Amino acid sequence: MTIVGKAGSAASKPNVDEARKRSRFSVLFEIFIVSLKLGLTSFGGPIAHLGYFRSEYVNRRRWMDDRSYADLVALCQFLPGPASSQVGIGIGTLRAGWLGGVAAWLGFTGPSVLALVWFAVLLQGTDAAQSGWIHGLKLVAVAIVAQAVIGMGQKLAAGRVRASIAFGAFAVVLLVESAYAQIALLLAAGLFGYWRLRHETEGDPAQLKLTISKRTGALFLVLFAALFTLLPIGRHFFAHPLLAMFEVFYRAGSLVFGSGHVVLPLLEREVVPAGWVGDADFLAGYGAVQAVPGPMFTFASYLGMTAYGVVGAVVATAAIFLPAFLLVWGALPFWNELRGKPRLQGVIAGVNAAVVGILGAALYDPIWTSAVTHRTDAAFAVVMFGLLQFWRMPPWAVVVLGIGCGALGIIGS
């Protein structure tokens, strides 16, 4: 009987391990399916996404409480990158480790990526600059970015000091046409905020239950910094177009604060002069990304597909989202301590104010200067803005209206 008992115990161990594997797979699959539902239905930009997330993850599924969710949102607002995607990655990570973060990202981001790749395929072989419906998309982009500038300005550039940072950034970006000037501007705004806005704190933060060790988090942060430093060097010595693309999109994903709209000026000053994407195609894609759910950073998928096909789409998508993974995984173990530092809160306040100015400059150039060519265009853009801002029409509906008016010739190119 003893022998049988030992044999039975030995035989049961693989069954236990297999059950654990199945259980882990079921958790990951659940994360993916829930995130996929959000990826198919979450219209309206990052702020709206956070509302959808709270309804699903906190209210309905009880995966975390309100305090933990608020802390995670605060972390992702502090970090550069796509805030809503980072929150999703963080929730998946807290629930099932780093694979949970990947599963959450795949579900939330996948539908938007596929839709924009498909749009890029449709656009190939057409004369985008002369298409009426493309012109309609460009005018819709004017309205959407104007709404983003106003909304972000009210939140991130309130008060004399922050407004001054925003207006200063606006002027610098218009006068100095360089992506590197924008990087220097963000650094300067952060330093100014470190000095001038350090007293604007929000009280003691709550504590998050973390599953990543500080050592592992440090490794992710080191990898983030190493890639940020070495990719430009590698691009200089190895003149391969895909490496150049990876470096550009990784840098954009590493430096953008505030919302997906802010990635526009960084990418426009890189991909258009390089000849990867034309002006008309760039703005057409930016208009199309408003009509799909999910994160706006999937604009990179469209640009990569337009430039180098499927391989380009994969490279651009992976590059622009990789910093989000590395920063969330790296920062989670340290966030409880960092949030309480007033000077670091001042840094992010200064950077966010500068972001408003950068986006305002992008509203003028290239969006307004490329899309609005006569009074009819200006009138249509203002009407679209009113529908968004005051009638609360969803962005996808405004995009459809713009495409229809352009296609019917109601607005001319």
From TrEMBL:
The keyword Transmembrane helix applies. One of its GO terms (cellular component) is plasma membrane. It is found in: Cell membrane. Keywords: Cell membrane, Membrane, Transmembrane, Transmembrane helix. It holds the Pfam family Chromate_transp. It is a multi-pass membrane protein. The chain crosses the membrane at residues 27-52, 98-121, 133-153, 165-197, 217-237, 249-267, 305-332, 344-364, 393-411. Its main location: membrane. This is Chromate efflux transporter. It comes from Paenibacillus validus. The lineage of its organism: Bacteria, Bacillati, Bacillota, Bacilli, Bacillales. The gene is chrA.
